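Worked example 2:
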Amino acid sequence: MNSLPTTALCLAEQGLPVLPLRADKRPFGLCRACEDLACGGRPNMRVPGPCVCPWPCHGWAAATADPAVVGSPQWSAAWRRARAIGYHPGGAGVTVVDLDNQAAVEWARSVLPPTTTVATTRGEHWIYRGTVRSVNAVRDGVDIKSTMSYTRWLGPGTGTMADVPDVVHELVKVRPAALPAPRAVAVPALAGGGRCPHRSPVYLERGIAMAEQRISTTTSGVHAAVYRTFLAVLSAHGRCGCLTEAHIGRLFTAAQARGESARHCTDAWANATTALGM
């Protein structure tokens, strides 16, 4: 028997905002329109996006401490398929320092003050009282999960919870919140060494601006829209050397503003270059 719904209900009654997670740790879409994140996976209402359902139903924005919602028929199908319980640390007023390997754990033990800790599959969660912005990869194997983020519930942990230390505040302050530096685009030289027909600042700027707008205003299927836009940009500008890392960074930023992760942006870009034989 799946005990997750019962545990989740108990946690919600204690004030922890919870949500069901798949085996791969992704959240469910918790209404029919958003099943399997067909709407693009962007939490609505609290963060603008393509989802038009009347209440937040996926991602961190869906996490709730309302027992009536957690135990509702709308959530029951997801709980039957769920393999883990997620929660929104920021909504619970805490910050999770997610340590993904032993080296990261050793770093935490030497730098961070003792607090509540929970063992994970590969490392540990160090949980502090207070919230900060969520930023991944602040160090090798270290993610900060708090506001606008979710993580797995792995038990109450051990130790007395301390306040978020200054070192964590500094890490999220100096680390860019967006993506890692985009890769340079390797393109073949023009046949015959001809002059690039697109090497016009105005033409290129217009193309990048249109691509940003296309991503920002898409109303459904964000993953597909991002890929198609990347494909269009590379088709127009990828073979002539016009694109710079700054241009690619603008596209990635626009995509992440619509809910795409840095990994999805990188994958979409790689898939587009492969499709075009670059």
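The chain has a mean pLDDT of 79. Residues 27 and 35 are 10 Å apart (CA to CA).
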